[in-house]
Design brief:
The chain is an alpha/beta fold. It has seven helices and nine strands; from the N terminus they run αββββααββαβαβαβα. It has a five-stranded mixed barrel with strand order 5-8-7-6-9. A hairpin with a 2-residue loop joins strand 3 and strand 4. It comes from Mesonia ostreae.
């Protein structure tokens, strides 16, 4: 709690005052910032108690400004367990954004399509998720000081915002699949056998993030919605080596649709 207070006070002194909406941008999804009037920005490594982004394609900045008339705080780059952080550290920024005052949280990520009806370059609205990280961001001794220990996860993704995203997609002819996202530890990608297993247990897309942030948002009673950009097709019978540069390029290809969804949602919420 002391760390949360110190970090929050630092950011308020930097001008991060009462943002309405928090946004977490995933791999290759940084161009939303071009639609934002940036008022303040701070590098992660300058923020007290903040982790530092170690992945080369995650920029590592916290930005404050305006999108569609709403004050927002945006994470340009997120943290992952595979970087060596525990899930309390991975989700620390969510607690900070909540403490700063956000009332809604929008999350994006890049993921692989396990459902072979989904194609790379398309998007998936996350309806539900499976946590295969082997840990929980709520699994620590004093968690009850921050909220209910046994958080209900029967409806982890906000229904109103999800419905609005469906409506926006329909009105703008944007293909938007819906499905179950599974979060794995990484950083290695999956084997053919692992893809088959993930399909059997009900996953439509796989990635290495997002679920911890969703859990903490629910712990904070913070309405949250998430969209995956599908950057590769995980067909175990025709599996090809994955090139990270190609994944980033595919995320960039789908990014304009993701930006349109988020902008319209921000305007409405």
């Amino acid at each position: 709690m002391q760390y949360i207070e110190e970090t929050t006070n630092y950011l308020r002194k930097k001008g991060f005052e009462n943002p309405e909406i928090g946004i977490i941008l995933g791999t290759g999804l940084g161009k939303l910032l071009e639609e934002m009037k940036i008022i303040h920005e701070v590098n992660y490594n300058d923020i007290p108690h903040f982790p530092t982004a170690t992945v080369e394609f995650h920029k590592g900045k916290l930005l404050y400004g305006i999108i569609e008339g709403k004050t927002v705080v945006v994470m340009q780059g997120r943290f992952h367990s595979y970087e060596g952080y525990n899930l309390k550290e991975v989700t620390f920024p969510v607690r900070i954004m909540h403490q700063l005052g956000i009332k809604k949280l929008l999350v994006s990520n890049a993921s692989g399509a396990i459902n072979l009806n989904f194609k790379k370059g398309e998007m998936m609205l996350i309806q539900d998720h499976i946590n295969l990280l082997g840990d929980s961001p709520l699994a620590f001794k004093d968690v009850s000081e921050y909220g209910e220990r046994f958080v209900d996860m029967s409806e982890p993704y906000d229904k109103k915002m999800s419905d609005k995203l469906r409506q926006i997609a329909k009105e703008n002819n944007i293909p938007l699949h819906e499905g179950v996202y599974v979060s794995v530890l990484g950083p290695q990608l999956e084997t053919k056998a692992e893809y088959r297993y993930l399909k059997i247990i009900g996953a439509d897309a796989v990635g290495m993030s997002t679920v911890p942030e969703i859990i903490v948002a629910n712990h904070l009673n913070l309405p949250v919605v998430a969209v995956s950009v599908l950057t590769d097709e995980c067909d175990p019978d025709h599996l090809k080596p994955v090139n990270i540069k190609e994944i980033i390029a595919m995320a960039a290809k789908a990014e304009p649709h993701m930006i349109q969804l988020f902008k319209e949602l921000i305007k409405d919420v």
